[in-house]
Amino acid sequence: xxxxxxxxxxxxxxxxxxxxxxxxxxxxxxxxxxxxxxxxxxxxxxxxxxxxxxxxxxxxxxxxxxxxxxxxxxxxxxxxxxxxxxxxxxxxxxxxxxxxxxxxxxxxxxxxxxxxxxxxxxxxxxxxxxxxxxxxxxxxxxxxxxxxxxxxxxxxxxxxxxxxxxxxxxxxxxxxxxxxxxxxxxxxxxxxxxxxxxxxxxxxxxxxxxxxxxxxxxxxxxxxxxxxxxxxxxxxxxxxxxxxxxxxxxxxxxxxxxxxxxxxxxxxxxxxxxxxxxxxxxxxxxxxxxxxxxxxxxxxxxxxxxxxxxxxxxx
Length: 315
Fold this sequence. Notes:
Elements: H1 2-15, E1 19-28, E2 31-41, E3 46-50, H2 57-64, E4 72-77, H3 82-92, E5 93-96, H4 108-116, H5 126-132, H6 148-159, E6 166-170, H7 178-193, E7 197-201, H8 205-211, E8 214-219, E9 222-227, H9 229-236, E10 240-246, E11 258-264, E12 267-272, H10 275-285, E13 291-297, H11 301-309
């Protein structure tokens, strides 16, 4: 009985996405930033939006947040549209944007208290937010004196202040040290486990792979792939990857079991269905004095990115 109830709940969630994007188009002059995309995001998932710079992901997120108006198409959030329910939507979402302008003459504590006053519903306490994001020792410090990572943590904290049903995070861990990144990851996982929805844009592939239930990859204003991180990887690169650090640029395509070859500065990436035979031929046929190092690993989202877009994520 419990299993049947769970399946019914899953079916209901799928039929009623918490965010629905239909035919979204946004142009800047003659440039099409977002090209008639369709997208459904479900309750309780971390949904990643990835793409090279200029792919249209930030425009898509900012339109979902109500910061930009679509040229055509529509967006509903929690069953509401910005046209008729803008204020209600803004009370129920949390937004952390890529470049936050914090008040330089206010302390961290004062900024949190100011943002709390913007919302009608119950908000998280200032102390709880300071503690959650490791800012307690900076509570009385001016925001202008914070480091880049501390400002970013404060920006994420402000997005959670109103206990939102949907949280938009655009590059939430940019500029953070590894420890701070992990604390934000933990916070995002707790948000998900509480049944709320996170829409995440990131340039860190390990972050997307660790946090996201599903991912949409965008390029040139279009969604070119959609699925779980593992589905996307398996659909495009079923093989392992051999990384060869070398100045040599020829002869790799003819190695046995190699399905594709990519070059990036001084590294050659070989997708292989049989690691042992490829490595054996590599060591036999290539002058070893021209090889600085060899690394064997499983395929990653970064590999898929390069294959689908033909460029590294930070292009």
